[in-house]
Amino acid sequence: MILNKNKLLAVLVNYGDEQLNYLVEVVSGLKRFKYFEVTIIVQSNIPLDIEGIDTVNVITLEDYQLLPLTCRKVIWNNRNNYDVFLYGENDHLFLEKHVEKHLEYEKILPENRITGLIQFEENENGRYYPGYHHHFDWKYNSVETYKGLKFAHFFNTHQASFILSRAQLFKINKSFDFNSLVEDAPLSFMDKVLNKLKKTIKKPLKYPNNYSVKCKVNTDVYDYGGMKKLICISEFEDNLIHHLPNIYIDGLRGRNKFRSREDRMNNALKKLLKK
Questions:
Q1: What's the CA gap between 76 and 128, in Å, rounded?
Q2: Which domains does the chain carry?
Q3: What is the 3-state secondary structure (H, E, C) of the chain?
């Protein structure tokens, strides 16, 4: 019997019924956690009857792009009731090691650092990384070492999810209102021109991408929360999260594979680990 489990609140967003099979898998995975007492709340535009979900809040909105933001509000309202907080879309498969590693890294990193995850897709031909596209890349001079582990910054802060300890949640809310989206600083005319000429960009701009409203639910945390987002590259496999639909690697629904090939990522990691 495991005593004194950390209380974890997982708040997931669901829209429509097209991806309920993935939501079932995500919920089932969370409920299999051994070392955390997991409560699952789902913010949805439709009623749900899925085993393992503790609460379904059916939300009516004029603009459902704002449905993910309601997850942040649920987390903030429960800020004193849980030790760890998790947000995710209905098709990203959380593993217990994601949470364990996040808390482990928090203990060894400075307070102005926070770790995140890298999305991946996989099929019989290998692995793809949807976030590793267009001009996004690693910051190769960002490698930092703590307790023998190496970390680096990846410019695309979108991962359709986040994991926060209670201390990190309170720290972020000091930087911006956790219940609201941060208004991005507008790009200058020249920045917009440079963004169109992505091949010429050697360094991403200060505001490399005005993320969509849906994406900003997690990118705000990393871009404006007062902590630099790092990925543990020496334990890279432990910090990957599976985007279950595999729509980018398989080219489904008109999605392109971008430049997110497995060999590109492997070469980048070799370069980073030499730093």
A1: 34
A2: 6-273 (3.90.550)
A3: CCCCCEEEEEEEEECCCCCHHHHHHHHHHHHCCCCEEEEEEEEECCCCCCCCCCEEEECCCCCHHHCCHHHHHHHHHCCCCCCEEEEEECCEECCHHHHHHHHHHHHHCCCCEEECCEEEEEECCEEECCCCCCCCCEEEEEEEEECCEEEEEECCCCCCEEEEEHHHHHHHHHHCCCCCCCCCCCCCHHHHHHHHCHHHCCCCCCCCCCCCHHHHHHHHHHHHCCCEEEEECCCHHHHEEEECCCCCCCCHHHCCCCCCEHHHHHHHHHHHHCC
In the prediction, which pLDDT does 189 show?
47
pLDDT tens readout for residues 21-52: 999 999 999 999 999 999 999 999 999 999 99
Tokens 């899925």 sit at which residue? 50
